[in-house]
Amino acid sequence: MKYVTIILFVLVAVIAISYVSAEPIPWNPFKELERAGQNIRDAIISAGPAVDVVARAQKIARGEDVDEEE
């Protein structure tokens, strides 16, 4: 009777281990889309000062009055 219990336990353990897999989590396209959106947002924020410089240069070229506070 003890041999049957041991064999049954080993069989259950092997089956339990065989169902466990080390596969990575499936690819989530929404996570990639969110990361791309964050990169675009960061690029726009970092380009802000350069856009202000270009706008001021255009105003100077047109001969308009340029305020430093804008």
Automatic annotation (TrEMBL):
Highest taxon of the lineage: Eukaryota
The organism of origin for this protein: Papilio machaon
Cleavable signal peptide: 1-22
Gene Ontology CC, one term: extracellular region
Keywords per UniProt: Antimicrobial, Immunity, Innate immunity, Secreted, Signal
Subcellular location(s) of the protein: Secreted
GO biological process, alphabetically ordered: antibacterial humoral response; defense response to Gram-positive bacterium; innate immune response
UniProt family annotation: Belongs to the cecropin family.
Protein name as catalogued: Cecropin-A
Major localization class: secreted
The keyword Phosphoprotein is annotated on this UniProt entry: no
